[in-house]
Amino acid sequence: MEIEAWVWWLIAAVGLGIPLVLTAMPEFGMFSAGAVTGAVVAALGGGIVAQVLVFVAVSVALIAVVRPLAARQGARTPRLATGIDALKGRQAVVLERVDGSGGRIKLAGEIWSARTLDAEQTFEPGEKVDVADIDGATAVVM
């Protein structure tokens, strides 16, 4: 019993779809789509050369067109800052005098230890400061 060529192409399409699911690499999906078109050509009676050429053409076309579109779309999506990255650039209120060696601020509703970015600078209670960086559990302010 001989298996027809279109069945082999469908097996290849499924085989290429598995790494797509496991690795989330869209290129495998594009190759899988190319294999499906190879199966269609085989089912319509096209020779092996036509099947391979259609597979390659569709796969390359999808990679050449879809990947740049997806990259552009991903670049447009704003990235949300989370964790300490979300605190950088925010304003805080000094609770205890802050200088190069330490102090306390209220940042995002929480009390943080803080130190100044410039060791010569000091901030008194009630002043507003900007968070330049987070160093461990200490906010670096200016």
Outline of the structure:
It contains 4 helices and 5 strands, in the order ααααβββββ. It has 142 residues and is of the alpha+beta class. The chain is rod-shaped and about 85 Å long.
Task: Characterize the structure shown.
- The structure is a single chain.
- This protein has 142 residues and is α+β, with helices and mostly antiparallel strands.
- The protein has helices at 5-23, 26-43, 48-76, 84-87, and strands at 91-99, 102-107, 110-116, 128-135, 138-141.
- It has a five-stranded mixed β-barrel.
- β4 (128-135) and β5 (138-141) form a beta hairpin.
- The longest helix has 29 residues, at 48-76.
- The chain starts with a helix and ends with a strand.
Q: How are the strands of the biggest sheet laid out side by side?
A: 1-2-3-5-4
Question: Overall 3D geometry?
Answer: rod-shaped
The helix content, as a percent range, equals: 40-55%
Cα separation of the termini: 79 Å
H/E topology pattern: HHHHEEEEE
- Roughly how many Å is the radius of gyration? 29 Å
State mean pLDDT (0 to 100 scale). 92
What is the count of DSSP helices, taking H or I runs of 4+ residues? Answer: 4
| Overall strand count | 5
- Pairing-aware structural class of the strands and helices? alpha+beta
User: What does the main sheet amount to?
Assistant: 5 strands, mixed, barrel
Low-confidence stretches: none
* Beta-strand content estimate: 15-25%
